[in-house]
Amino acid sequence: MKILGKKSLSSVVMVFLCVLLVLCIIAIIAGGIFVLSNLSFFTKDLLSITYILIYLSSIPALVMIITFLQIFNTLKQENPFEKKNIKRLETSYIASIVIGVIYAINVLLVYLGVGIIQERFFIIYPLANVAISIIFLIFGIGIVVLKEIYRKAIEYKDENDLTI
Fold first, then answer.
1. DSSP readout, 63-105?
2. What is the pTM of this model?
3. Which residue, 26, 48, 23, is CA-closest to 35?
């Protein structure tokens, strides 16, 4: 299967990212409506801080989806070595690190006793947050490495274009 072009893998991934974008926007709107309609719940329970932090993590996730859509659009147009993609990868890695830090803060809040959770969730909930945090932090580091590789590839391409 082709990777670049209109009927390629990048086009399939773009469709998937568009679906994710719509779902993320719906989740942000629905979550905002839920929080606003249950404001009394969120002011009584100390665990609501973690709910709000998880909700806030959807904003960098939305940013990541949009930047990946832009990157895959350049793949679809068969012009992946744009300098704008370096900035897009930088934006994505920052968003990924922010999500990882938000989930790490959630773990700290649970273990510091900010919220009271049921005993059966005391191990599962923090472990899930640790896993998510580590995944996004490693993903962010991977994007930094990819950004540098991309930057070097663009330098080589520009240098090669000048020699012809």
1. HHHHHHHHHHHHHHTT----THHHHHHHHHHHHHHHHHHHHHH
2. 0.84
3. 48
Residue with tokens 């012809």: 164
Look up tokens 């704008």; give the residue: 84
Helix axes 48-56, 58-76, angle to 10 degrees: 20
Q: Which span out of 35-39, 64-68, 103-107, 125-129 was modeled with the highest average pLDDT?
A: 64-68
List, for residues 11-50, the tens digit of each pLDDT value: 888 899 999 999 999 988 988 887 777 766 655 555 577 7
Q: Are 5 and 78 within 8 A, CB to CB?
A: yes
* Residue 117: both structure tokens together: 């959770």
